[in-house]
Amino acid sequence: MVNFGKWSDPSVPHKGWACTYIEDLGSPDQTCEMCEKEHIRYVHYMSHPDYPGELQCGCICAGNMEANLVAAQNREAKLRNRSSRKRNWPKLRGWHTSVKGNLTMTKDGYRITLFKSGQGFKASVVELTKNVPFYSKRIFKLELEAQSASFDQVEHMKENN
Ligand SMILES: [Zn+2]
Question: Domain coordinates of the chain in residue numbers?
Answer without folding.
Answer: 5-88, 92-159
